[in-house]
Every structure is written in structure tokens, then in C-alpha cells.
Amino acid sequence: MIRAVVFDLDGTLIDSAPDICRAANQVLEGEGLPLITFEQTRGFVGRGARVFVERMELAVAGANDPLRTAHLHARFLHFYERAHEATQIYPHVVEVLERLRGQGLQLGLCTNKPLRPTRAVLAHLGWDTLFDAVIGGDSLPVAKPDPAPLLAVLERMGLGLPEIAYIGDSETDAETAQRAQARFGLYTEGYRKAAPETLYHQFRFSDYRELPELLHG
């Protein structure tokens, strides 16, 4: 019996790529480096801020230099915490989250976005108290696709794997769920690059209004 739903954030509940792109280009412009495109941004998202910066740096500079990477990462986090003005909630997410809450389900959040930018965007959206447990990409020594962050959310909610469904949009989320052996629902309108049928999942959906029925199917 499902007692909780755990969600990824970027590309799953919200489309934050425009703000991530803007934050990245603010950094690059300040360093006199070439800018990245919106499509590049979407392709770099998924493994956390550090990996995003490494991918960005490689694309614009042709190589990763440890000192430069660390500097770019610090600058990116500075802008990232304030980058939420263009972020949009995906259609029907709000009504569905309220419906799940009304059914007595707990809600968890397991994201590779660092915790401070996560808290900032949740506050911006009025979601400060929506989730019973929140784990960010820097909450633990490891990040997704290691299953530890997902398991940490469950531990904080006092639940086991058979009692939850995990919802995400990407290869990283699918691998996380597979390694944890969690029930996984793939939201197909996010930042995934591979064909949906090639990814681990128990169900997939493109419209959030389908989710409540799928959870209990």
C-alpha cells in the first residue's frame, strides 16, 4: 500500500532550466567565457551543481581545470540560490499534490539540486512546508544515482520501500530507483534524453492528472 510519494524537483515538478541557464551565463559572462545555450543547459542538468559546472566548463573551455572548476562552482552557487524568477511549475502539479495530501499521503523531495537553492525555490513557490522530508544534492556525501539520498528521505518519513513511489524525469532518477529497487514513475515532459521505454520504470505519464490513479494501479 502506497503511503508516500517522493518526487525529484527540477524537470519533474518544476521547469527551472531557464533560470539555471541564466545563472550559468551570468557566471560565464563575468569570467569572459563563451555562453551556453538553453539546450546545452537542459543536457547538463541531472547530476547536481558540481557536475553541471564541470559539463559547462568543458563545453566552453574545452577542458576541466580543478582550480577553475572550484571557482566557477562557487560563483554558480551564488547565482543559483537567487535563480527562480523564471521557474515554472508544470501543469496540474499543484492540484495533484493537494489531492495526494488530501488522501493522507506523505510527500518527500529527493533532488540533486543543492539544499540552499532547493530551500530558496521552495520558499519562492510557497512550498516551504509542503514536503515531509527534503534531501538535496549536498545533504549527504553522495548524490543520485546513488540510492542513499532516496533511502534517507524514506528514513526521515519512517517508511520502507514497499510503501512509497518515486517520481522523476531523468536517467539519473531511473537509475536511482532501479538501484534502490523502488517503484518508479517516469514523468516524460522533463529533461530526459533517452527514449522513455529504455529507462527503468513501472509506469510513465505526461499529464499530472494521470498520477493519482497510476499510483494505486
- Say which CATH homologous superfamily of the largest domain is assigned: HAD superfamily/HAD-like
The biggest sheet, with number of strands, parallel, antiparallel or mixed sense and barrel status, is:
6 strands, parallel
How many β-strand stretches? 8
Quickly count the domains.
2
Shape: globular
As a percent range, the share of helical residues equals 40-55%
DSSP summary: helix tally: 9
Instruction: Tell me the Rg in angstroms.
Output: 17 Å
DSSP strand (E) fraction?
5-15%
Q: Are there runs of 5+ residues with pLDDT below 50, and where?
A: none
Q: Spell the H/E element sequence.
A: EEHHHHEHEHEHEHEEH
Q: Strand sequence of the main sheet, in spatial order?
A: 5-4-1-6-7-8
| SSE class | alpha/beta
CATH C-level label of the largest domain: Alpha Beta
Enter the CATH topology name of the largest domain.
Answer: Rossmann fold
What does this structure look like?
The chain is α/β, with parallel strands linked by helices and 217 residues long. The chain folds into 2 domains: 4-15 and 87-215, HAD superfamily/HAD-like (Rossmann fold), CATH 3.40.50; 17-80, Putative phosphatase, domain 2 (DNA polymerase, domain 1), CATH 1.10.150. Helix content is 44%, strand content 13%. The strands form 2 sheets. A 6-stranded parallel β-sheet has the order 5-4-1-6-7-8. The chain has a two-stranded antiparallel ribbon with strand order 2-3. β6, α8 and β7 (183-187) form a beta-alpha-beta unit.
